[in-house]
Batch of 2 targets.
Target 1
Amino acid sequence: MNEYDVVVIGAGTGGYVAAIRAAQLGLKVAVVEKQKTLGGTCLVWGCIPTKALLEHAHALKIVQNAKEWGVSIPGDGIRLDMLQVQARKDRIVSGLTKGVEFLFKKNKIDWIKGTARLTGNGGVEVFEGDAQRLRARKEIIVATGSAPRSVPGIRIDRKRIITSDEAIGLRVVPKSIAILGSGAVGVEFASIFRRFGSEVTILELLPRLVPVEDAAVSVELAKSFRKQGITAHTGARVTSAAVTGELVEVGAQFADGSTQTIRAEYLLVATGRGPVTDGLDVDRVGLDLEKGYLKVDAQYRTNVAGISAIGDVITLGSAPHPQLAHVSSAEGIVAAERIAGLEVRPINYDHVPGCTYCDPEIGSVGLTEQEAQERGYDVRVGTFPFGVLGRAKMAGETDGFVKIVAEKKYDEVLGIHMIGPRSTELVAEATLALRLESTVEELIRTIHAHPTMAEAVGEAAHAVHGAAIHL
Ligand SMILES: Cc1cc2nc3c(=O)[nH]c(=O)nc-3n(C[C@H](O)[C@H](O)[C@H](O)COP(=O)(O)OP(=O)(O)OC[C@H]3O[C@@H](n4cnc5c(N)ncnc54)[C@H](O)[C@@H]3O)c2cc1C
């Protein structure tokens, strides 16, 4: 039996960050991971490979508009080499997973290769790999993450009816692809494949694209997708999907009651992810579950003493828990610090930034206009379009805007929502503003360098007070 202070199960962005923080604080740590590499969904199947593909799509966009940039491409025109695209993406992924291995060595964390199950009283049994028994003197952190899930009536065959796990590895650009779901994963793949040359059809059950975003962002994205030739059906219930030869026939029913069969080479099911607890023996140790998620308190303690849980596998019981890499890492740090005996503060989930790397990009943090109204604030908003900004014109990226949601009484900023160039970077300023409980006036008085995309944030603040300079 090998003894550690902390045993982490799962080496995703939750687990590996928790392990490093615990080791930094002087604890002896082991991490059990069943995959061949460290990094979990984010590094191997999620954030990193998708954003690498999106960078390829962006490079292709520049090349496709070469004339506008004054660049001529002689010869037989533009051709995308998917094998090269995949090879570059794989190099990026493996560089980063090896980086985590290096950090484990640096912090003297033992990586135990295998699948773990809980045996009670601090015990963990590793099987299907380096079989052994471990004991956590202080705490076990369960960070087993999530996996793609489908909707009733749709059977994922991983060949034609696929998930993001298969979509990131396609070595040929599909002639056509239907995408079920318009959350971050759905719209990111829509942007990738449309730019690569596919006919893309999105089917979204709810009345608007990216339904968790501010409604104005959804409208802008729909407009931009239309211009790019992406077909998006909202209020569309997918009722069936059948593979016939090389095609998937997708049955859809629309809000007005009409039905349609959409034929595409692939159906990508992007309807969200469910928790991974199979084989962990959660029942044996008596862990409380809610819809399959592990229930935790604000310091990530489960109902069983000595077992914590973080990341995509948890529920906090109240609002839906954001399944995001940076959320899992932040939770890992809080859990590790609490286990090491530091005083910790609960995470404010209203201040979690969300980024969607579709074209145009979306970055948002805090309350949407509707949420602010529902919470009873006296709301006022200000919006500034990228279209009039010098830097956006230079980049040839003029779609979108920054919208600030604030309240009248204290002038407090409640949320910042943006769609347009570099929004996934600009959201960092917005997140800090919320963290510091900034007023609109403070954002106005913050000097934004010229010419930058960030000027749109300052101008949107001016717009809240009805005084945007360049509008
Ligand atoms: C296509 C896609 C794109 C995404 N893009 C973004 C993005 O841009 N930004 C963002 O913030 N988030 C993004 N996400 C979400 C992000 O990847 C997850 O929120 C994050 O990976 C969750 O981290 P985690 O540590 O909780 O779990 P995971 O990363 O899922 O890690 C869990 C690990 O536990 C291991 N494991 C499970 N059970 C056991 C067991 N019994 N024994 C041993 N090991 C086990 C698994 O093999 C896995 O490695 C994306 C997700 C997808 C699918």
Note: The longest strand covers residues 132-142.
Target 2
Amino acid sequence: MTASSTAATTSTNCRNCSAATNGAHFCPGCGKIQPLAAGADYFGFFGIPRKLTVDLATLERKFHSLSWKLHPDHFVRASEDERQRSLDLSSQLNDAYRTLGDPVARVEYLLSLHGMRKQGQKKQQAPPELLEEVFELNESLDELREARASGGNAARMSGLRAKLESAQQKFESSLADVDQELARVSADWDAALDSGADEVTMKKLMERMNEVLNRRSYIRNLVNGVKQELVTGDE
Ligand SMILES: [Zn+2]
């Protein structure tokens, strides 16, 4: 991981014809496939700005076009080196597409690029506005498990199930609210970028995104837990 060992492999000139490649996947001079550019991120991979509003139609078009150009089938008669590059880039392409195509994964990725994604202990705590509901939910879950273990009567079981189903709906609507909030803060991020906001502003926005993501992950776990419990009851 020393600077010199990376420097040797991060040349931005084509090894075939020495033309400057500027991070392109194919040399503008000779057309040979290039290794992944040093420090390239998923946004750079697609040649799109590092923003949270991504035009999905454009992304998909670029994905299909690159997918075709980088396909290992085109490199069966190429050198071992080029064949390997096509494999590496194809795999990177798929990861990049999956990540940038999803608005939540996209924010997570952006934060990780900035070293700002933190899933600390806070992740385990219920968001204050949901504390009461989470408490009630856990009670119902305990009751249901107890009733099931002791072969509880059908009426009681179905009452508890109904309670859980309504809790599930409530948390699913909280999840939708959180997604909207994430969309809002994403739009704020892009607007701040466009207006050349200072570092402090950008950092605050990333902290907000991180907080929203933690809340989202907490609620999603709740929803999944309830779903799981309801499915178990069906067996
Ligand atoms: Zn070249």
Note: Residues 14, 16-17, 19, 27, 29-30, 32 surround zinc ion (CB under 6 Å).
